[in-house]
Specification:
Helix 5 (about 110-115) links the parallel strand 4 (about 100) and strand 5 (about 120). About 40% of the residues lie in helices and about 15% in strands. The chain has about 200 residues and is of the alpha/beta class. The two termini are about 25 Å apart. Strands 1, 2, 3, 6 and 7 form a five-stranded parallel beta sheet that branches.
């Protein structure tokens, strides 16, 4: 029988109160997630980021200022990642090799550079259109996720700034458990993400 696994990931942290709401819903359901953090937010709110770490969730790098990394010079893209890495280490003591380019946008040169730097490039399962930015409510988001799940390892991505996402996860997590899915952090997946 094929394994049914899902990793719940979040972009844009730390972003209180949204990040804290996500931590509450994950704790309520007894699962761990993966939070991809932006350096400029981390500078302003290391306390929230520390709560993510202390709760045992994965932490990844989502660049410093959230530019489309495939549309800027490679050296600038490298600095975006390295600057956030330094903040993660200095402010909350995290050394991560998980990176997610903003909007999942990547090209060959950027991928080659990140892989050479030792990162696992984590995108998401394109067949699962979470589209939380489109709303319009928790039920619609939940329906999009639940009806598009596959056998094997799935990565779904939310943004912790949208107020209806905790309610969406309150629908999604129990339903996927009922359907036989287990929840893992990205670091626990076989491939760590889309691109090794």
């Amino acid at each position: 029988m094929s394994k049914k696994v899902v990793a719940v990931t979040f972009d844009g942290a730390p972003n209180a109160p949204g990040t804290l709401n996500m931590l509450e819903v994950l704790e309520r359901h007894g699962i761990k997630g993966s939070f991809f953090m932006e350096g400029h937010r981390l500078e302003k709110d290391p306390e929230t980021a520390l709560k993510v770490k202390e709760a045992g969730h994965d932490i990844g790098n989502h660049s410093y200022s959230h530019p489309m990394l495939d549309q800027i010079p490679l050296e600038e893209a490298r600095e975006e990642i390295l600057k956030t890495d330094k903040l993660l280490k200095d402010l909350i003591g995290v050394d991560t090799k998980l990176v997610r380019p903003p909007a999942g946008q990547i090209n060959h040169d950027l991928a080659a550079m990140l892989l050479e730097m030792g990162y696992h490039i984590v995108i998401w399962s394109y067949n699962i259109p979470v589209y939380d930015w489109a709303g319009p409510n928790a039920e619609a988001i939940a329906e999009r996720v639940i009806t598009n799940m596959n056998e094997g390892e799935n990565i779904i991505t939310f943004h912790d700034k949208y107020p209806y996402n905790p309610d969406a996860l309150d629908i999604i997590i129990p339903k996927l458990k009922e359907m036989g899915y287990t929840f893992k952090r990205v670091s626990e997946l076989t491939r760590k993400g889309i691109i090794q």
